[in-house]
Design goal:
With 225 residues, this protein is an alpha/beta fold. It has helices spanning 26-40, 62-73, 90-99, 211-214, and strands at residues 7-12, 15-20, 49-54, 78-84, 102-106, 114-117, 120-124, 132-135, 139-145, 148-151, 161-166, 170-173, 176-178, 193-197, 203-207.
Length: 225
């Protein structure tokens, strides 16, 4: 009777994908993975090969992930790009929920105050000069932005800043920094504007209407065409 394989190695145009069975013990998995990689390694192969590891419905601790990475790295020309699992902890699930949550706040952010949220921020109020708002996702300000706004503060370059009045002292999206361009229009005549990172990796400020074309997944709410 043929023994079930706990490790399947598939070659792709980007490198190797390792499918690791989630029903065997972790010890068995490591032993077979070491054997399979040793058999498939080519002597004299100098080219670095990217490896993606998929573990299915198996939860791996950080220590176990490091053990697998080290085992793979020992095969000289292999580099681990990612380890993906269908299983996450309650803490990880809570963190993801927070990052996808829209936090609504009704207040004025005064000079010296900092408001930070893990996901999207909907602020009903002004950000005064010297005030700062930060979000892991998008920032929507139903009021005047005259202070600092930092969207995508954990590295999300798709994040945007929207304000009824866009006159910030500084705009930041991910690791890009810029100021909104100065305009001579009166505040009362200003229309709602948005800031985003363009194809040149620069922050651009434009009419709000461009967002429906640039960021089609900007909201989970459904509206008209």
């Amino acid at each position: 009777m043929k023994k079930n394989q706990n490790v399947t190695i598939k070659g792709t145009k980007d490198g190797l994908t390792l499918h690791l069975d989630d029903s065997c013990s972790y010890g068995e998995l490591k032993k077979e993975l070491d054997l399979k990689l040793s058999e498939s390694s080519r002597a004299g192969e100098d080219r670095l090969i990217s490896v993606r590891v998929q573990v299915g419905n198996r939860y791996l601790t950080e220590e176990q992930q490091e053990e697998l990475k080290e085992l793979i790295r020992q095969k000289k020309n292999l580099i681990v790009e990612s380890i993906s699992s269908n299983v996450i902890t309650k803490e990880e699930a809570e963190k993801r929920r927070e990052e996808n949550e829209i936090v609504s706040v009704a207040k004025m952010i005064r000079s010296g105050q900092v408001l930070e949220v893990p996901g999207d921020l909907l602020l009903v109020g002004d950000v005064n000069p010297g005030g700062t708002v930060m979000a892991g996702g998008n920032i929507f300000i139903m009021g005047a932005l005259k202070g600092i706004a930092h969207a995508g503060c954990h590295g999300n370059k798709e994040a945007v800043v929207v304000a009824s009045l866009m006159k910030p002292s500084q705009l930041r999206i991910s690791d890009c920094i810029n100021r909104a361009p100065d305009k001579d229009q009166d505040d009362e005549k200003r229309e709602m504007e948005c800031a985003y990172i363009d194809e040149n990796e620069q922050i651009t400020v434009d009419r709000l209407q461009v967002l429906m074309h640039l960021r089609q997944n900007i909201t989970r709410l459904q509206g008209g065409s």
